Fold this protein.
Amino acid sequence: MKQTINKSKRSSRRRLPPIRSGEMIDYKNINLLRRFISEQGKILSRRMNRLTSKQQRLMTIAIKRARVLALLPFLNNEN
């Protein structure tokens, strides 16, 4: 009985989507891109980001473009 209550409570909990409906995934939107990069400068995995596969592909392309244009660092070595 106790397990069924916990399962239903877990599934009814809704998480906010990481990208709002008005936000565009673009290499110029640095504030958005920084949310999906680790402290070391690595691109976070899709499971950690809670993105769809299409959003993750677009995010990866945007982060790589921003790195090439020097808007984002390739590595974060600020120790």
